[in-house]
Write a sequence for this structure.
């Protein structure tokens, strides 16, 4: 039996969530809390397996309550948001940064066409998160310094020889991925001379909020991709809701509503497979924390095509499923924590080159093609500068 604490200030919404959760015989709701302060006391008193957390509450909000719980009594926390407004979803990721494991929209009401699906998604997420072993977060004033400046790029990762110069970075992640991605992107310089493509398993409606949240700590422009555009150097592309993202003809971004892979759409496997085919040894693949096996075999495929491949290490992973499987298969050239991945990528990308060639797929991308001026509206990070290959 999975013991759940429900934190929600609205009596109507609270009762609705209780009905949704209690409908599953494997879940026992052991208590409710109407505020962040009540949530702290209830977690200490009842020691639940999972907490569902509202974001907007009087006095102590869901972000602060999450941070305090993770500092005192670490517990798997699922953020249940009543809105998919971009500003609010971006704020929800502050709770993820504080230690929450997942963010979901509140299930639709009884009688709604989407009720059964959305209610099942909440129940499924609660069950999955109950299996995650979370660790204590240090209070902000006591947090040990773990950031790695770019100058501390691991010495054993020397720049690759000329034939393997990295021209594109592909990153895949699931549970626990947002803070890891945030750490990596925050360490990339604003003149990073390669596009970065990201697939993060995330609930529909939260992608733009995720993009906006990442932009707050990154030097690079963030955006969701447009079908058929060429990825710009120094730009970050995050796969959109319910669509696979990959590379198609002549390296252009390709969006597809093909069937889910490994139960996911977008899938890391779809992205990595296309990058291996198009960019070959001119790519770097990074597989981060997450449940399951999505992207694991395809990271090996990238390595077999000559790409540099990196898997997140066990100690820093919230869930060691995806990177662990890739490591077991022999798909990872390097095994690193997030704070070392950014410096590693910077060291592996020595600078702009005139072209990217993969003879196997007959793709030739000239420098001019990779610096096209037809970029869509983007979310800009806090620092601006001359981007290699940008406008």
């Amino acid at each position: 039996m999975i013991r759940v604490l429900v934190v929600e200030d609205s009596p109507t919404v609270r009762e609705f969530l209780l009905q949704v959760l209690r409908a599953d015989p494997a879940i026992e709701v052991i208590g409710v809390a109407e505020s962040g302060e009540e949530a702290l006391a209830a977690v200490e008193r009842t020691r639940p397996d999972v907490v569902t957390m509202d974001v907007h509450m009087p006095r102590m909000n869901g972000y602060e309550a999450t941070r305090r719980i993770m500092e005192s009594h670490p517990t798997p926390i699922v953020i249940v948001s009543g809105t998919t407004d971009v500003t609010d979803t971006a704020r929800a990721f502050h709770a993820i940064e504080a230690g929450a494991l997942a963010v979901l929209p509140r299930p639709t009401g009884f009688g709604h066409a989407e009720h059964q699906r959305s209610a099942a998604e909440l129940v499924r997420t609660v069950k999955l998160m109950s299996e995650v072993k979370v660790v204590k977060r240090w209070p902000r004033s006591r947090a040990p310094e773990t950031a790695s400046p770019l100058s501390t790029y691991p010495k054993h990762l020397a720049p690759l020889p000329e034939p393997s110069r990295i021209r594109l970075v592909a990153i895949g992640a699931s549970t626990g991925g947002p803070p890891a991605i945030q750490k990596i992107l925050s360490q990339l310089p604003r003149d990073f001379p390669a596009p970065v493509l990201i697939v993060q398993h995330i609930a529909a409606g939260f992608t733009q909020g995720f993009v906006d949240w990442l932009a707050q700590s990154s030097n690079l422009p963030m955006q969701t991709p447009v079908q058929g555009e060429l990825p710009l150097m120094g730009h970050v592309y995050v796969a959109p809701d319910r669509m696979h993202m990959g590379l198609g003809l002549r390296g252009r971004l390709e969006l597809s509503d093909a069937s889910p892979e490994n139960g996911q759409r977008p899938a890391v496997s779809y992205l990595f497979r296309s990058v291996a085919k198009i960019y070959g040894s001119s790519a770097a693949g990074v597989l981060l924390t997450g449940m399951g096996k999505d992207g694991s075999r395809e990271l090996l495929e990238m390595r077999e095509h000559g790409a540099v491949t990196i898997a997140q290490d066990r100690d820093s992973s919230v869930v060691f499923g995806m990177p662990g499987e890739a490591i077991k298969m022999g798909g990872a050239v390097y095994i690193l924590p997030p704070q070392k991945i950014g410096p590693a990528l910077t060291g592996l990308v020595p600078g702009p080159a005139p072209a990217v060639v993969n003879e196997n797929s007959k793709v030739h991308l000239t420098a001019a093609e990779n610096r096209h001026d037809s970029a869509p509206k983007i979310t800009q990070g806090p620092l601006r500068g001359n981007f290699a290959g940008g406008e």
Summary: The longest strand covers residues 27-33. Residues 115-129 form the longest helix (15 residues).
